[in-house]
Amino acid sequence: MKRGRAAPVRTCVGCRVRTAKSGLLRLVVVEGVIVPDPRGRLPGRGAHLHPALECLELAERRRAFPRAFRLPGPLDGGALRARLAVHAARQQDGRSESDV
Ligand SMILES: [Zn+2]
To answer: How many domains does the chain have?
Structure first.
């Protein structure tokens, strides 16, 4: 039975927690590269992830991306990782502790 509730919910491919779609980052694959699609405009099969490095790492460790996108892989998550790192640095109210 489908419920006619308002906010759509998606499952994060990393931590598998169900979250309102607006709290997740949509991802698509373009030529083998995982790219963020914050506006939800890119065509193709999407996956949803919390905008957090922890969830990206979980997803990569569990090899969740090829499954989520239904692609054989390997998929390049480098650009996505860089974007999430910037996002995380901004959240530490301006201070960037870069001990990479
Ligand atoms: Zn998550």
So the answer is: 1
pLDDT at 5 over 90: no
Q: 69 C-alpha vs ligand 1 centroid, how far in Å?
A: 16
> Cβ–Cβ contacts within 10 Å for residue 98, how many?
7
Asked, for residue 98, whether it belongs to a domain, the answer is no
Q: Is residue 39 included in any domain, yes or no?
A: yes
* pLDDT tens per residue, range 31-83: 999 999 999 999 999 999 999 999 999 999 999 999 999 999 789 999 999 99
Domain of residue 66, CATH code: 3.30.1230.10
Which domain, by its residues, includes 30? 9-91
Tell whether pTM > 0.85: no
Q: What is the 49 CA–ligand 1 centroid distance (Å)?
A: 6
